[in-house]
## 1
Amino acid sequence: MSRGSHYCCAPGCSSNTHTDLDRSFFRFPKDMKRCFIWIQNCGRLDLQAFDPMHLYVNYKLCSLHFENSMFAGMCGNKLKKMAIPTIFNNVCADVKPLLSVEIVSTELKADENNDDSIEVKLESDLNISDSTTSGY
């Protein structure tokens, strides 16, 4: 029984497990803060509509989007616990990748259309030098 192919969800990236056997594919983190960073950095703002567990189950980024310092060990098939993807060629040049983010507070606000929205205030504050591996 063969498993289905996995595809990288980064815009413009065509990596998949069927044709790119030398690449690793990584699930989005379950942690909301880190998941938010991954969404921002890869430029897939449409993914903000989903909770982290949905992204963890259904979306992956390939190893091309992580700097060597983000990998645990030499094989490139396991990420450090606080790994952040920062290599994206097709993301708008005006967007600077986030290295880390701390959600300081959230406020529920009503916008002009009487729809509820959440305002998120951010502060850079995570340490990505952690050498422990993640539970992906």
Note: The chain has a mean pLDDT of 75.
## 2
Amino acid sequence: MSKTVKLTDWIFEIFSLQILWIIHIFKGFIVLGIFPSIAAVFAVVRHWLLKREVESLSYIFKQYYKENFKTANILGWFFSSITFIVIMNFIYTAYYPEQIQIIMYAAVIFMAIILLIVWAYLFPAIVHYKLSIYELFLVVLKAGFSSLKGIIFQLVSAVIIFVIIFKLPGLVLIFGIIPVAFTQTAISIKVFHELN
């Protein structure tokens, strides 16, 4: 098989995954579909990176969507709520008395670091481990604090991806969140392997 054909097949698979992601977001009426769909994308990407055979992309996506539906929704919306609260605290801290501002900014920075770690490893951990919600949270924190290099690589990769998307916004229609899922999953697999 020529390299051109392989590249075309690869782009088609990625585009198909993107379509499945969008369909299943709406299948869950957006609110209940967004996080299980993201988890399913990460699971499929992990499947690819581990070089496992994929007989039907649609079938394994649906399987991962159902498997992670509850956990992805609970953790996704919980940490989204916490992120919203931290952002709002950051915005309104400027209106607090000066003595309280220092304490509030310190608390916001601490929570922002925790949330950065959580969002960096949350979905890779959900699809990598079969653990309780509490155990998943502990694994995410352990992964983040044990590998500063992993966090830095993820941040750099995310910045590069967003710059490319900013320059070429049309790529979002084809690739969506998949480049982010690839980089996060690839880095996370290595970090999780070191944890084990």
Note: Residues 3-195 form one domain.
